[in-house]
Write a structure and sequence with these properties.
It is a single chain. The chain is of the alpha+beta class. It has 3 helices and 7 strands, in the order E-H-E-H-E-E-E-E-E-H. Strands 1, 2, 3, 4, 5, 6 and 7 form a 7-stranded mixed β-sheet that branches. It is globular.
Length: about 150
């Protein structure tokens, strides 16, 4: 195994907010699907060992990176069409990240830890995705910089 870590970047097609992604996860559980969440893709990344060394799948939702899920494994799948594919298996926990605008692309892309957005200091605030999208629309792409200061307890 390598010492380097690599992340993957993927469009979250059909999902309009982090809340909707979380609701899909809850619905899946209610319907009795207790398996780990996964995304099936045609090819396994060549740098899969680096991805398995602590990497995450960063989700692009409505034109911005807004969340990530830790990648746990790559498992081979054979479809009904007899074609070999790979499942990217990731952790249940959806972690919100600082928003970063991203143009549409196909498939997945590598994302180095250095270029990956940091996690938000707060997690699970309902409506936060909508507020972030309002901010992104209000300011030009190249002028936006979001910073957070840690909360100092009294």
């Amino acid at each position: 195994m390598t010492n380097k870590t690599m992340n993957l970047l993927k469009l979250c097609v059909g999902i309009n907010s982090v809340e909707e992604l979380e609701e899909r996860r809850i619905e899946r559980r209610k319907n009795g699907d207790n398996s780990q969440p996964e995304h099936v893709t045609r090819f396994r990344p060549r740098r899969f060992e680096e991805v398995l060394n602590g990497g995450s799948l960063f989700w692009v939702i409505n034109g911005a990176i807004l969340a990530r899920q830790r990648i746990l494994a790559f498992e081979q799948r054979i479809g009904t069409d007899e074609i070999k594919r790979w499942a990217i298996v990731f952790d249940e926990e959806i972690i919100r990240t600082e928003p970063v605008r991203k143009r549409p692309f196909q498939g997945w892309r590598y994302l180095t830890p250095k270029k990956s957005p940091p996690d938000l200091p707060f997690q699970g605030n309902r409506g936060s995705t909508e507020r972030v999208m309002e901010i992104l629309e209000k300011y030009p792409y190249d002028e936006l910089k979001i910073t957070f200061e840690p909360y100092q307890r009294p």
